[in-house]
């Protein structure tokens, strides 16, 4: 009975109103667009969309607090436990090993049953793990081994997050608003970086590194309770309701994946995302250590907060301007390439300039501009997956994130090794800039924005 009630809530009886280009119906405040006889997409009404956008933004914020707790505390923990930079790089890189394993699974599950359910389950899991991390370091065999395993498991649990967000956006948001929606949700990342950089740094100084992990776990657990209590109805954790076959969710299992991966535009998107994410993960992981090494007397909150404060308005601006250009008649592919050029090409200039500066103010300015420009990726490659394959956006984004997680793992570890052996941050930043240039060049040459997942079905205009 519970499963039937849950199915009815997401699949209420409807009457379709046919138009020349699509079938549209309205029921219980939802707008349902039928792409063909078998696949329908339920779009959130405006009020519900705003509520869910706020909650998903907060979930991303707390996720990044949890994820960045280790890089923020890395210097303190390395001193306490006697880790070298190679050891620290191994601990931070373990996250990406785990991050690889659940990307595709999380995206496929989200495409099939709805990303909201997947996000609720994953957030509750990593919230508990983050909160008990300090306890595990005390009861485990060795802190280095314990933290490496814990970071791996954290990556496994958080790996489904972004594929689920992409799937939710593809299913619940209309095409002309996806750029701004993804950019808004991405602000959760920058807000989380600000919180862990500002509040987390203060907690680190006042209460010790353990408090940073406690704070992230507690906030994420509160989010889980609020979503379960107020936005979900019925037995969310029931396997009968969780794995019910929902006809309103596009089924990625029907996609011709072999055909999909023969498309050059798909590979251009994957490679560009791989290059961007590798650079971004490495910067996030090592920037706190860079500032500690180069400017040991600088205040932590300055370099841990200002770049992400800059990223908030730039992300919203990028999403707004991309949607505006598309509505004005600019080609979607052209807009995506322009956004990606800003995110990778222009940002690389400021990453490279980090090699040449010896001033703390100039270093913070370069990092802030590089991070701010990188947010244009949210309306570039991150939305391009909706353009190419909206019916399997979550699963395809999972493939993209799996590739980028592997490359991110290698880049984070390799950067730690280079710094350990040579003491040269210039080499690291030069490599990151080069990787970005390669990725954006491939996307500009081969990238497209036309659908390639189901070429025989009509598109919604």
UniProtKB/TrEMBL annotation:
It comes from the Eukaryota. InterPro entries: MFS, MFS_dom, MFS_Na/Anion_cotransporter, MFS_trans_sf, SLC17A9-like. Residues 52-451 form the Major facilitator superfamily (MFS) profile domain. This is Voltage-gated purine nucleotide uniporter SLC17A9. Belongs to the major facilitator superfamily. Sodium/anion cotransporter family. Keywords: Cytoplasmic vesicle, Lysosome, Membrane, Transmembrane, Transmembrane helix, Transport. It catalyses: GTP(in) = GTP(out); ATP(in) = ATP(out); ADP(in) = ADP(out). One of its GO terms (biological process) is ATP export. It is found in: Cytoplasmic vesicle, Secretory vesicle, Chromaffin granule membrane; Lysosome membrane. It holds the Pfam family MFS_1. Voltage-gated ATP nucleotide uniporter that can also transport the purine nucleotides ADP and GTP. Uses the membrane potential as the driving force to control ATP accumulation in lysosomes and secretory vesicles. By controlling ATP storage in lysosomes, regulates ATP-dependent proteins of these organelles. Also indirectly regulates the exocytosis of ATP through its import into lysosomes in astrocytes and secretory vesicles such as adrenal chromaffin granules, mucin granules and synaptic vesicles. It is a multi-pass membrane protein. The chain crosses the membrane at residues 54-77, 89-106, 118-137, 149-170, 182-206, 212-232, 266-286, 306-326, 338-354, 360-383, 395-419, 425-446. One of its GO terms (cellular component) is chromaffin granule membrane. The keyword Cell wall biogenesis/degradation does not apply. It comes from Phoxinus phoxinus (Eurasian minnow). GO terms for molecular function: purine nucleotide uniporter activity.
């Amino acid at each position: 009975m519970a499963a039937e009630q849950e199915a009815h809530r997401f699949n209420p009886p409807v009457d379709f109103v046919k138009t020349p280009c699509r079938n549209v119906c309205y029921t219980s405040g939802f707008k349902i667009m039928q792409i063909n006889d078998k696949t329908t997409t339920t779009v959130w009404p405006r009020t519900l969309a705003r509520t869910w956008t706020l909650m998903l933004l907060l979930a991303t914020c707390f996720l990044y607090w949890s994820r960045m707790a280790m890089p923020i505390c890395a210097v303190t923990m390395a001193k306490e436990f006697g880790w070298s930079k190679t050891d620290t790089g191994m601990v931070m890189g373990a996250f990406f090993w785990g991050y690889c394993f659940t990307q595709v699974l999380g995206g496929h599950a989200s495409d099939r049953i709805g990303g909201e359910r997947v996000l609720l389950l994953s957030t509750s899991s990593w919230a508990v793990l983050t909160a008990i991390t300090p306890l595990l370091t005390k009861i485990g065999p060795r802190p280095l081994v314990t933290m490496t395993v814990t970071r791996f498991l954290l990556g496994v649990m958080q790996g489904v997050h972004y594929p689920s967000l992409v799937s939710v956006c593809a299913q619940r948001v209309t095409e002309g608003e996806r750029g701004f929606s993804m950019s808004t949700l991405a602000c959760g990342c920058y807000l989380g970086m600000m919180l862990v950089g500002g509040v987390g740094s203060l907690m680190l100084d006042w209460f010790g590194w353990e408090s940073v992990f406690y704070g992230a776990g507690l906030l994420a657990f509160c989010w889980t309770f609020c979503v379960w209590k107020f936005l979900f109805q019925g037995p969310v954790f029931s396997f009968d309701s969780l794995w019910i076959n929902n006809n309103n969710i596009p089924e990625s299992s029907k996609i011709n994946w072999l055909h999909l991966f023969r498309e050059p535009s798909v590979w251009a998107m994957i490679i560009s995302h791989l290059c961007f994410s590798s650079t971004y993960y490495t910067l996030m992981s090592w920037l706190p250590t860079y500032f500690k090494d180069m400017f040991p007397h600088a205040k932590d909150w300055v370099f841990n907060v200002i770049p992400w404060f800059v990223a908030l308005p730039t992300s919203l601006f990028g999403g707004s301007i991309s949607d505006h250009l598309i509505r004005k008649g600019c080609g979607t592919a052209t807009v995506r390439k322009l956004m990606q050029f800003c995110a990778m090409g222009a940002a690389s200039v400021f990453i490279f300039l980090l090699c040449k500066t010896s001033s703390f103010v100039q270093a913070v300015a370069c990092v802030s501009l590089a991070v701010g420009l990188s947010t244009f990726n949210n309306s570039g490659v991150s939305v391009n997956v909706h353009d190419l394959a909206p019916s399997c956006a979550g699963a395809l984004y999972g493939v993209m994130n799996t590739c980028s997680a592997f490359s991110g793992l290698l880049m984070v570890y390799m950067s730690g090794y280079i710094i350990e052996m040579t003491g040269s941050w210039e080499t690291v930043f030069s490599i990151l800039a080069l990787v970005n240039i390669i990725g954006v060049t491939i996307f500009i040459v081969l990238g497209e924005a036309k659908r390639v997942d189901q070429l025989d079905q009509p598109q919604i205009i």
